[in-house]
Amino acid sequence: MPSALPSPWTLIPGGITSPAGFRAAGITAGLKVSGNPDLSLLLAPEGAVCAGTFTTSLVRAACVDLCAERLRARGGRARAVLTNSGQANACTGERGLADSLTATAALAARLGLEPDDVLICSTGVIGVPIPMPTLLAGFEPLTAALAADQAAGDAAARAILTTDLVDKQIALEADLGGRRVRIGGMAKGSGMIHPAMGPPQATMLGYLSCDAGVAADLWQAMVSRAVDRSFNAITVDGDTSTNDTFLAFAAGEPLGHEHLEALEACLTAVSQHLARAIARDGEGATCLIEVQVEGAASDADARVIARTVCGSSLVKCAVHGRDPNWGRIVAAAGRAGVPITPGAVALWLGPHQLMAAGQPLAFDRPAATQYLRERAAAPYLQDDIVAFRLLVGNGRGSGLAWGCDLSEQYVRINADYTT
Amino acid sequence: MPSALPSPWTLIPGGITSPAGFRAAGITAGLKVSGNPDLSLLLAPEGAVCAGTFTTSLVRAACVDLCAERLRARGGRARAVLTNSGQANACTGERGLADSLTATAALAARLGLEPDDVLICSTGVIGVPIPMPTLLAGFEPLTAALAADQAAGDAAARAILTTDLVDKQIALEADLGGRRVRIGGMAKGSGMIHPAMGPPQATMLGYLSCDAGVAADLWQAMVSRAVDRSFNAITVDGDTSTNDTFLAFAAGEPLGHEHLEALEACLTAVSQHLARAIARDGEGATCLIEVQVEGAASDADARVIARTVCGSSLVKCAVHGRDPNWGRIVAAAGRAGVPITPGAVALWLGPHQLMAAGQPLAFDRPAATQYLRERAAAPYLQDDIVAFRLLVGNGRGSGLAWGCDLSEQYVRINADYTT
Fold first, then answer.
1. In the Cβ-directed half-sphere of A8, how many Cα atoms lie within 13 Å?
2. 3-class state of residue A396 by DSSP
3. Closest CA to A100 of A130, A142, A70, A59
4. Residue B201 — very low, low, confident or very high, per pLDDT cuts 50/70/90?
5. Do the strands A179-188 and A197-198 form a parallel or antiparallel pair, or are they unpaired?
6. Between chain A and chain B, how many beta carbons pairs sit less than 8 Å apart?
7. Which of A45, B14, B94, B275 shows the smallest number of beta carbons within 10 Å?
8. Does residue A1 surpass a pLDDT of 70?
9. DSSP, res A45
10. Which residues of A touch B417 (CB under 8 A)?
């Protein structure tokens, strides 16, 4: 749940299919050796405005290029997005693009759409092509499973996962000028998480649906701003993926301009919820770390500092060890590459102030340690947040970033992933 | 040992005291609870040209500022450097500077030097001041132990260590125009290692001595170039320290200009040896990772790519798991932030080529895995190198970086450092 739900929005059960005008499906096609669900489809039968943000990595999968190209060609509109999990189809050469084209063409034919109406996202092992006969054989049961209910949304949200422990969904609803508007979303991601997405360019994958219509260019701008404050503000391991993609669909009657601000607040809240859920589900993580930076020269600078602290291996290990080792936080802030005023630095861990004016305070170490322990002892919960607040100067810039602790389990998971 | 010793230099036993004109000492003053040696002194009794490079972190210890300031004030000359290990004396406010001033003044008086002749480096826990009475009481036995022999150099090299497993020393000798010239060095560092040092600005600490005289500005330029190709090209955990410092002393009769190129080659080789030794001694590491990048737009770009690959948690875990997961290497190169040509990427692991033209090759996986295993099975050795060679395009830029694998032991060490 978002830390603060923007007014007038309320949380409702559901996800990607909660807004009107969207159908979804998720099945097991057999792409994964594990036998877990691996094929997901989101469909806007009447069409939708679609804004995309994509990885800025120079080594990116052909499916990412294809999404960006089709959205550009169609002026920011799309009707469907297919997601296969198990194979990232990155570094697969010309075959990568050919397979993405074949898959979307075959799916479009089955859905009665143009190939350009269909987008594709892939996630899994890099360098491994998609087993195409298995993929194509999955289209019949996949399209047969399409539905607008929550069960279909749940299935779609599960089928995009790879090393994730839990699915990530949310839906919010508001009355805007007498009209019920809903935004739903789903996402996946657990490792290789340090999204750096630009406008019309994560292997985080995120999908959002909205049943209010917004002009394509306006929607893209709103989505890009929301992504900067959510997915681009999380880190699990500092590794930006070849396939990171966020696609936000808006379909329905146009919404009055007087409600766009409320809509963007919801868009940001939904994106932040999904981003935080990815950080919390970081490989081997036992808690979510939230760093709030204030007093920076700009909001962008504040986000850079906050994400640098979240990404520090030493900070992550200290949190894992339930050790209020504040020195590592300040050291990370100092190397973030943006201006800070060391003599003005103040730091809080939850309710405990650890530093003031650049120097350590005589804080209650057992209580601070207890604060950290309580958040780890809780069962898997998206609200088990270790919160740091860091004042870095007298500027007006503030920003948030999210990450997770670094555990021995992270090493075990990643020392033996392909073999 | 440097991978390729530059001509006409030969390796000799020894370290910081091998060049003529330098004396050193290392003792246990009681600054560390462990009872390990913790106070180190390097002295150039006749004075020396001294070039320094210091951390670019905005949060840096007062001792770093003091070193930079004194070198500037004295036109790049110094006579002694004191190193205390156990307390970083960073984030200690005004007391930090006052203690650094008191320490150097007291030591200068004992040595018959001006305070400005004496530099100070501190390493250990951030936010903890130096126990001054213990430090000051250590000066008598420290100065009494000063000697020019190898035992004194060994003692000095051991007293600068914190979480290091081994000391790091090297000495090279050459005949330059009929004159015997020696360069010696020592360093420490195991965690919070991702130096980013600028000219007249690393908790890696490195010290170098040379018994040939070079003009101060020329020496600083040579040292800065060597640091960019050595200490600034290693990473253990991506965390740049508040105290990183490299100090290079040159004392003796001026060396003819025709020999400066050979001298700089040695300076670079000594710095690279020490830097590699730090990376190999990275907290929890079981091997050294060396990444050689070729075909980049510039040497600087090549070093950025090489260091990004070395710093990738996923690459580090794959190496730890002895898993030739090449996709992670290419993904890291793609996000390095400098131009590469994905379609031209080729990759070798030792003698095994894993990729060509941006695509995976059908390589001998058991042999590649065996290559990785052999390098881990060896006992602690600075030559157990996992070597990657990465071609990223058709440019003329090439560069090297060094790192280490990420183990469960790294997490255990850092989850419980202050408590």
1. 10
2. coil
3. A130
4. very low
5. unpaired
6. 212
7. B94
8. no
9. E
10. 318, 321, 323, 325
- Closest CA of chain B from A14, distance in Å: 34
Q: What Cα–Cα distance (Å) separates residue B9 from each residue in B154, B175, B267?
A: 22, 8, 11
pLDDT of residue A175: 96
Nearest C-alpha in A relative to B88: A327
pLDDT at B42 over 90: yes
- Supply the pLDDT for residue A380: 53
What pLDDT does B379 receive?
55
pLDDT above 90: residue B32: yes
| Contact (CB<8Å) A239/B58 | no
Report yes or no: B206 and B246 within 8 Å, Cβ to Cβ: yes
pLDDT value for A63: 95
What confidence score (pLDDT) does residue B2 get? 45
Q: Kindly name the residue from B17, B203, B242, B245 that is annotated as catalytic.
A: B203
Write out chain B residues lying below 8 Å of A60, CB-based: 334, 342
Token output for B153: 């150099």
**CB burial class (10 A; 0-12, 13-18, 19+) of residue A374?**
middle
Instruction: Tell me the nearest-neighbour CA distance from A92 into chain B, angstroms.
Output: 6
Residue A80 DSSP class? E
Structure tokens at B250: 């040159």
For residue B330, which residues of chain A lie inside 8 Å, CB to CB? 59, 91, 126, 242
Average pLDDT over residues A245-263: 95
Q: Which residues contact B112 (CB under 8 A, 6 or more apart)?
A: none
Interface test with B, best of A323, A335, A345, A349 (most B CBs within 10 A): A335
Mean pLDDT of the region B117-142 = 95
**Minimum mean pLDDT among A95-99, A359-363, B116-120: which range?**
A359-363
Share the mean pLDDT of chain A: 91
Mean pLDDT of A355-382: 82
Q: pTM of this prediction?
A: 0.86
Question: Would you call A340 and B410 a contact, using CB atoms and an 8 Å cutoff?
Answer: no
Nearest to A239 among B331, B369, B413 (CB): B331
Q: CA nearest B128 in A: which residue?
A: A360
B58, A342: Cβ pair inside 8 Å?
yes
* Partner residue opposite B239 with nearest CB, options A55, A241, A313: A313
Paired with A53 in beta bridges are A246
Query: What is the Cα–Cα distance from A72 to A66, expressed in whole angstroms?
Result: 10
Query: In this predicted complex, what is the ipTM?
Result: 0.83
CA dist B46 to A214, B118, B119, B148, B250, Å?
77, 13, 15, 13, 11
Q: How far does A8 lie from chain B, in Å, by closest CA?
A: 39
The minimum CA-CA distance between B325 and chain A, rounded to whole Å, is 7
Catalytic residue list contains A203: yes
Q: Hey, what domains does chain A have and what are their CATH numbers? A: 10-280 (3.60.70.12), 288-414 (3.10.20.340)
> Among partner residues B314, B358, B418, which is closest to A239 by beta-carbon distance?
B314
CB-CB neighbours of A391 under 10 Å: 22
Q: How confident is the model at residue A2 (pLDDT cuts 50, 70, 90)?
A: very low
- Which tens digits make up the pLDDT trace of A140-190? 999 999 999 999 999 999 999 988 888 999 999 999 999 999 999 999 988
Q: Which of A196, A318, A342 sits opposite B59 (nearest CB)?
A: A342
Contacts of B407 in chain A (CB under 8 A): 411
In the predicted structure, residue B417 carries a pLDDT above the cut 80: no
Nearest residue in B to A55, CA atom: B335
In the DSSP assignment, the letter for residue B213 is B
The predicted structure's pLDDT at residue A56: 85
The half-sphere exposure of A119 on its side-chain side, counting CA atoms within 13 A, is: 34
Contact B327, A91 (CB under 8 A): yes
Q: Do A126 and B331 touch (CB under 8 A)?
A: yes
Show residues of chain B in contact with A333, CB under 8 Å: 58-59
Does B177 have pLDDT greater than 60?
Answer: yes
